[in-house]
Amino acid sequence: ISGYALVIQARDSGNPPLSSSVTVNVDISDVNDNSPVFTPANYTAVIQENKPVGTSILQLVVTDKDSFHNGPPFTFTILTGNEEEEFTLDPHGVLRSAVIFKHMVSTEYVLCVQAKDSGKPQQVSHTYVQVRVIEESIHKPTAIPLEIFIVTMEDDFPGGVIGKIHATDQDVYDVLTYTLKSEQKSLFKVNSHDGKIIALGGLDNGKYVLNVSVSDGRFQVPIDVVVHVEQLLQEMLQNTVTIRFENVSPEDFVGLHMHGFRRTLRNAVLSQKQDSLHIISIQPVAGSSQLDMLFAVQIHSGGFYKPAYLIQKLTNARRHLENVIRISAILEKNCSGLDCQEQHCEQSLSIDSHSLMTYSTARISFVCPRFYRNVRCMC
After folding, report:
1. What global pTM score does this model have?
2. Tens digit of pLDDT for each residue in 8-20?
3. Which residues form the Cadherin domain (predicted)?
């Protein structure tokens, strides 16, 4: 307990008795009576042979139960095991290589490391670090090609995480890093550690092919990443139809069904091959396992198919569509819960282009805006 606040009252013996109170603050000053603690108590680490001088091997983690001025910064020292000065230890507790290790020369080192706190008098503790030298990487990384589809309102893309590269390596101890060619960094970024792809704001309509690579420190492998950006027109929102699917998650739909269903849907509703099918958004139905897919069809010669026409086409082809995925309902208007005369209602659809939903799988990622339905009875 670092301190106490006492309220003390003095009362006299008069009639009636009078009193007065005062607050006394008692601060408990810390003495340096706790040694630093390593977590874990001892360490094991590996380094591949032929890694360059200065390669990071291990980060030591030290805590101290004393107050801040009696704890960090800590002073780290290698006491034994480093007689040939193969290792260095920086003030932040990072153990690094000071030579280029060879697996044939030595396969293991054991270091005794000391941590000293900043108190007076100083307290110390020790840990042992076992470092194994393993053979250098012999397998190239492998990565899955990634295709990303982004749907956004005209010139209103806010940016954000749009997908993640999935890469593996058969060398157990390889650490993979991801890079993007510099000429594309004005539009996209790639997290070097986990492969997440970030798009910056204001992407134009079109197709982008990214020069991404993954490296294990020895081998560098290119990854096929293609980004398709589609900008919605306001007119699309007035001609949308919703297909509601049963028992499917957004990720499963994107990864397993979207390509096949899009192809089947085109065959079912398009009058001409030149017409364009636009999937505007997919969104889970709150409180259920259902999923809504919002789409519109653009006529090659101009304009859009009317929802009534699309619903008729869908109804006729429903059995064929359900060979791909189970359909719960085909919605143009949704009057559920409204007590409208003869069930007549007016529906408006709004898109929140700054609230993006990203559904990412290993091979395909779909980024779309959140949408909202508003319905009211028609008088």
Report:
1. 0.74
2. 999 999 999 999 9
3. 4-38, 39-143, 154-245
Q: Which of 111-115, 183-187, 201-205 has the highest mean pLDDT?
A: 111-115
Q: How far is CA 312 from the centre of its chain?
A: 41
> How is residue 295 annotated by DSSP?
E
**Domain-by-domain residue ranges, the chain?**
37-134
The CA distance from 291 to 145, in Å, is 26
Residue type, 115: A
Residues 35, 41, 47, CA angle at the centre, nearest 5°?
Answer: 125
Note whether 297 and 304 are within 8 A (CB): yes
Q: Would you identify the CATH topology of the domain 37-134?
A: Immunoglobulin-like (2.60.40)
202 Rama class: left (phi>0) / alpha (psi -120 to 50) / beta? left
The structure tokens 């009078």 sit at: 18
The CA-atom distances, in angstroms, between 184 and each of 142, 158, 179, 211, 324 are 23, 18, 11, 8, 38
1 band by pLDDT with thresholds 50, 70 and 90: confident
